[in-house]
Design brief:
single chain; alpha+beta; Endonuclease I-creI; 4-stranded antiparallel beta sheet
């Protein structure tokens, strides 16, 4: 599935913000069937979530949620948004030297869902 990544149109600043937010606050995992990267933060960060959604339009923004005394949004990249839009931003940028924990989580996600990623490489 060769398509143009939305990451190609981003400025260096936008790429840096995206990588920084995902390294600092992102979760690299999955639901057992498909991988995803999620970002969950307080509703006071709504502008940042809207900014992310504009730059990665195939991603999804959920919320705001209000329960347990918490108010938050959740942003999620999975499927084509993950493989074609977000991962190209992280490849080469998210290294062990930058953040070992986040790099290991990304590597674990890639390993655990290797079959899923292989379908996109065809």
């Amino acid at each position: 599935m060769a398509t143009t990544s939305s990451a190609e149109g981003l400025s260096d600043f936008e790429r840096g913000v995206l990588v920084g937010v995902l390294v600092g606050e992102g979760h690299f995992g999955g639901d057992g069937k498909q991988p995803h990267i999620t970002l969950r933060m307080h509703t006071r960060h709504e502008a940042l979530f809207r900014w992310l959604q504009e730059r990665i339009p195939r991603s999804r923004l959920y919320g705001p949620y209000h329960h347990g005394g918490r108010s938050y949004f959740q942003w999620m990249a999975r499927g084509a948004a993950l493989v074609e839009d977000v991962l190209p931003l992280l490849d080469g940028a998210l290294t062990v030297e930058l953040d070992q924990y986040a790099a290991e989580r990304l590597s674990e996600m890639r390993s655990k869902y290797a079959d899923f990623f292989a379908r996109y490489e065809r």
